[in-house]
Amino acid sequence: MTSVLVVDDNDRNRKLALDVLSAAGFRTFGAATAAQGIALAREHVPDVILMDLRLPDMDGGDAARSLGDAARTAQIPVVALTSLRLDDDGDLLAASGFAGYLEKPFRVRELADEVRRYCGES
User: Fold this and answer.
1) pLDDT category, 10, cuts 50, 70, 90?
2) Structure pTM?
3) Which of 7, 21, 33, 69 has the greatest count of CB atoms below 10 A from its CB?
């Protein structure tokens, strides 16, 4: 079963994403801080991580780089979650260790398909 870690300090956003993905058949984990997310990623090694860019304890980019630097988590695609429009910042995100990004608020009907795309599923 494909697993997804959602790291977002906004409880409503995190719960909604977890509920939608769980209903779509994903195994889900949630964290409210970068530190919690990194710990869960190291423990469970999910297939994909959805990471808010603005977290209370660490910038999402720093967290993504930390995951990319560790052998156990380096191969996990980390997808930025942001309310910022990032049309021209793909290179900046890639340099921060992100595989791509999803805009918030995300589209509930499309979230599972977007996550599958980052997991290499069709």
Assistant:
1) very high
2) 0.92
3) 7
